[in-house]
Design goal:
- InterPro entries: Diverse_PLD-related, PLDc_3.
- It comes from Parascaris equorum (Equine roundworm).
- Pfam families: PLDc_3.
- This is PLD-like domain-containing protein.
- The chain is 21% helix and 12% strand.
- The chain is built from one helix and two strands, in the order αββ.
- By secondary structure, it is an alpha+beta fold.
């Protein structure tokens, strides 16, 4: 039997579908860009992220959108 050590650094998967909502798609795109940069070989996290990856949306300031004719407050958060 072969034992596998799967650490949190080996595999990250995330799938999000956003349709007809450019504001959500833009924020999700930033999230994927961060994951892409973090996944580079021997990559260290920067002390601060570039401004083009920043967002003003968070748990204290969610994005107001209408989804399926319903008002929604949305933000994306990642925890590893």
């Amino acid at each position: 039997m072969i034992a596998h050590n799967v650490s949190s650094q080996q595999v990250k998967e995330l799938g999000i579908a956003v349709f007809n909502c450019p504001c959500l798609a833009s924020d999700v795109s930033k999230l994927f860009d961060v994951y892409w940069q973090m996944g580079a070989p021997n990559k260290e996290l920067p002390s601060s992220w570039p401004d083009d990856l920043s967002t003003s949306y968070n748990s204290n300031n969610p994005m107001d959108v209408t989804l399926n004719d319903e008002h929604s407050a949305v933000y994306f958060s990642v925890c590893t």
